[in-house]
Write a structure and sequence with these properties.
The protein is an alpha+beta fold. It has a single domain, classed as Nuclear Transport Factor 2, Chain: A (Roll), CATH 3.10.450.40. It has two helices and three strands; from the N terminus they run H-H-E-E-E. It has a three-stranded antiparallel beta sheet, with helices on one face. Strand 1 and strand 2 form a beta hairpin. The longest helix is centred in the middle third of the chain and has 17 residues. It starts with 13 loop residues before the first helix and ends with a strand.
Length: about 110
């Protein structure tokens, strides 16, 4: 992404595009775009609050796994780890993309 020297918005491509697509898939509430695809998004919005329980952290992993399985750029989900850090709730993902690129992503679940 970004802006060109002439002020035009630049498109992302390649790995940046895949990272952005995964990020958007996880952070978009499932069912937000029923006219396009009612399966797009995730259900992480169902879990909120200050005190996240171990069961809720496990549910977040399931919701993220389900969202990633819908993402056409993801070939294999290798690891999902939810952590509560001093900066908030984060998802640490390790995925294999369809181009055989292994990617590690950190998603801020409180965006």
């Amino acid at each position: 992404g970004g802006v060109s020297s002439t002020g035009d918005i630049l498109c992302v491509s390649g790995l940046d595009n895949a990272r952005q697509a995964i990020h958007n898939q996880i952070l978009t509430p499932k069912g937000s775009y029923p006219s396009m695809d009612d399966e797009y998004g995730s259900e992480i919005y169902l879990i909120h609050g200050e005190d996240i329980t171990p069961n809720q952290m496990q549910a977040l992993e399931v919701y993220i796994n389900n969202a990633l399985m819908q993402q056409e750029r993801v070939q294999e989900i290798q690891n999902i780890n939810i952590k509560l850090t001093k900066d908030g709730l984060k998802a640490y993902l390790h995925v294999l993309l369809v181009n055989d690129s292994e990617e590690e992503l950190i998603i801020d679940l409180e965006e």
